[in-house]
Structure prediction request, 170 residues.
Amino acid sequence: MSDHLIQKLPLDKGLKIESFIKKHNISITLKKNSGKTLSKIHKVSFPRHWTESYFNSLIDHPNYKIFSASNENTIGFLIILTTKDISEIITFAILPQMRRQGIGKALLTKSIEWLISKNFSYYNLEVSAENITAQKLYKTLGFIQVGIRKNYYKSQIQRSDALLYTKKLK
Ligand SMILES: CC(C)(COP(=O)(O)OP(=O)(O)OC[C@H]1O[C@@H](n2cnc3c(N)ncnc32)[C@H](O)[C@@H]1OP(=O)(O)O)[C@@H](O)C(=O)NCCC(=O)NCCS
Prediction:
């Protein structure tokens, strides 16, 4: 990965998504990505990472859509499963050194815009009760908590609840 990708972008809290993307030369696309790239980002983002071959199986499946954020290289991605008019976030991660600069918000916003353009009704997700960062982002974009799965996630040391969030798209 080239050095400039490791550097932080300046914070632009006031900028709208389109201006943010343009200003920082980030592209958000639905084009094919490699399982290798996705698994590398996933590995540094979650305690239990998914294999390259698992990502390749999602890439090849018509019901999964992969939004990638790139700035020369891929710096983050969001995968959704689409069934009828409901979509669900399967996984979502930004490279650690690129976080807290608005890229996750831009990626999520683009996926919402795409789902609305395709006439989807609901956008669902599940997040650990301990993942305050992600919950804050989801709430900012209008997701509301609708349920809870007690002790759903298991780490090496403890269990945590899964919170179910949804956003009505129309
Ligand atoms: C969750 C994640 C994708 C967010 O990506 P990001 O690019 O850092 O998010 P953004 O910079 O767009 O932040 C958007 C908002 O999220 C919230 N947020 C992001 N990072 C935060 C942090 N460290 N602490 C508190 N809130 C945070 C804030 O509300 C922020 O808006 P603000 O900067 O205007 O306050 C990223 O932290 C990540 O990859 N985490 C590890 C994997 C993960 O938890 N994925 C989600 C699984 S459900």
